[in-house]
Structures are given as structure tokens and as C-alpha cells.
Write a structure and sequence with these properties.
Largest sheet: none
Helix content: over 70%
Number of strands: 0
Number of helices: 8
Length: about 130
């Protein structure tokens, strides 16, 4: 199967992809996560996904209760950007959602030690909730 270059067919460039991201963020701000996810899915078809796209898609799936899909996208993002703390935190949340308590706790116990106070505080709350 050949890979279709939709950007070429549509005569689109980076500006149009940025516009799609902006629209998707607008839906996220309004709490309309399913529509935002549709836009991000379109972005991944049109151009190679960035770590940020994958992080956001993973977070949207997490918000929508799709733990397995969230974990898949968050893992893909972490392969590209392994030190991104918020993605690591969301990955732990997905693990908890899926019932992988031990793996989730392992991850949040490490995140409790991180210098970013907001991430560490959320990790601590998860430790208290799941320990």
C-alpha cells in the first residue's frame, strides 16, 4: 500500500497544520474532547505526528476514558521525548485506569522526586490514592 501525501494533494503546508492544531486546542479549552481528538487524528494523517501531538492525543484518550489508546499514544510520545514529565504522569494515570497498579505506582514514586512541584504534587496524590 502506498503512502498518500495528503499535504501535497491538498496543497497545504505547515501553516494549515498549525491552524488545525489551533482549532483542536480551542475545542480542548471548551471541554469538547471528542471533537478535538478528531482534529488531532486528522493532523496525524496529514503529517508525521510530533511528540506534542502524541502527548495530546494520549491525554485526550485518557480524558475520554480510553486507557489502552491513551497508553499507546503516550508510549509513542515517550519514545520520541522520554523525559517529558507530564507525559510520564499521564502514562501512570493510564496504567491506573487499566488496573496496572504496581506499574503505575512505580512511575509515580519516581515522579514524586521531580523538581517540578506541580508534577510532584500530582504524583504524590496518586501515590496516596493507589497505595
Amino acid at each position: 500500500m502506498s503512502k498518500v501525501n495528503w499535504l501535497e494533494i491538498l496543497d497545504w503546508g505547515n501553516e494549515e497544520i498549525s491552524d488545525l492544531r489551533y482549532v483542536a486546542y480551542s475545542y480542548i479549552k471548551q471541554g469538547i474532547y471528542d471533537v478535538a481528538l478528531t482534529f488531532f487524528d486528522a493532523i496525524t494523517v496529514l503529517s508525521p505526528p510530533t511528540p506534542y501531538d502524541l502527548q495530546t492525543i494520549g491525554a485526550l484518550h485518557l480524558q475520554l476514558g480510553n486507557g489502552l489508546k491513551a497508553l499507546d499514544f503516550l508510549d509513542r510520545s515517550l519514545k520520541m521525548e522520554p523525559t517529558h514529565l507530564l507525559t510520564q504522569l499521564n502514562r501512570a494515570k493510564a496504567l491506573f485506569m487499566l488496573g496496572y497498579k504496581k506499574q503505575g505506582l512505580t512511575q509515580v514514586l519516581e515522579l514524586e522526586k521531580c523538581p517540578e512541584k506541580e508534577i510532584a504534587a500530582q504524583a504524590s496524590a496518586l501515590v496516596l490514592a493507589y497505595r
